[in-house]
Design goal:
Length: about 210
């Protein structure tokens, strides 16, 4: 008699736990490793410093979770591809931090108002290293690509993309990153998504993950 064997598939939602675990690497690598570089360009000095954008900057966390939730509900396969891209992107970024560490110059005296206080607290808990590539920008790029691949309406896609761009700009306007960090985050996001699509083909995703 032939016994039927079944392979247990992975629950797609488990990728969120893996992403959160991988994100913890940031606090380990966010220190001066070897030669620390400054990637500031003349264009960085021409961009205004606007502490109020710290509020937009901190919406990255709820936005990322919200977009992942939308993808999970809308198109499970694209959710898996986007979550895997974010996980791999975090791993590649942290490997870069170890091999090519950078430091972002920050303003020292910028007032004592409420918004300035939030920004000062942000600086206090986040060392000025791990600049290139920006993980904020990388993950935002990955999730926007995921949204653009769904059948959301043009208006919905445009709104999400516009807010994603606003978050990317916020990293620059509050001096959490310099221009090359942002460019690197966008490039890493695009490349890692393409790499994920090649590594995890549609058939492979279907065979590995439950309900896809």
């Amino acid at each position: 008699m032939k016994l039927k064997t079944t392979t247990r598939k992975i629950a797609p939602i488990s990728l969120l736990w893996i992403l959160m675990a991988v994100s913890l690497l940031y606090s380990f690598t966010n220190r001066p490793w070897g030669t620390v570089r400054n990637l500031t360009l003349p264009v960085d000095g021409k961009i205004p410093f606007i502490p109020g954008f710290v509020l937009v900057y901190h919406t990255w966390y709820p936005l990322s979770l919200s977009l992942l939730f939308l993808l999970y509900r809308k198109e499970r396969r694209i959710f898996v591809e986007s979550a895997l891209s974010a996980i791999l992107g975090n791993l590649f970024a942290n490997a870069t931090f170890l091999l090519f560490q950078t430091e972002v110059p920050r303003p020292q005296d910028f007032g004592q108002g409420f918004l300035e206080g939030i920004l000062r607290a942000t600086y206090g808990v986040d060392n000025p290293y791990n600049g290139f590539p920006s993980i904020h920008v990388l993950v935002t790029t990955v999730l926007v690509i995921g949204i653009l691949r769904t059948d959301f309406s043009r208006r919905e896609k445009a709104g999400i993309m516009a807010y994603g761009i606003l978050i990317i700009l916020s990293t620059w306007l509050i001096r959490q990153h310099v221009f090359l960090d942002i460019l690197g985050g966008i490039l890493y996001g695009i490349l890692v998504y393409g790499f994920t699509l090649r590594l995890f083909t549609k058939d492979k995703v279907t065979s590995l993950f439950d309900g896809v």
